[in-house]
Amino acid sequence: MCDLELAWKTFDFHSENIAKLESDHLDNLNKLNVLLKKQVPATRHQKVNLVNKIIACCNKLESSYLKHVHCLNELIKIYTYRNLHGIAIPVEHITDIQFFNELKSVNATLIEEIKVYKSKIYEVLD
Hints:
This protein is mainly α. The chain has helices at 3-37, 44-84, 97-121. It has one domain (3-125).
């Protein structure tokens, strides 16, 4: 398997993992909303368990976003090298490097948002 193919497979793997983790995160947020809107207030134990679950999911998401950025950096290096040396990029993988840079920017924003979210989630316990 060539370096480009491996980089794309790794990128796809992390993209799928991120999609699953983001879905889990949304499920956790829905559970939190239900827990907080119950007529009978949630116990501290219920809140702590859910907050811990949310933090664990956020940590996995943050890690996955960082891995995604690493994959994007690898793709940028491979594309740049191939472009500089006149090595063809297979049709199915032709992508503008600017797209990779934009995705890196999105990931960086998501990482920062996750950090802020994690710092504020403990307010639920008050």
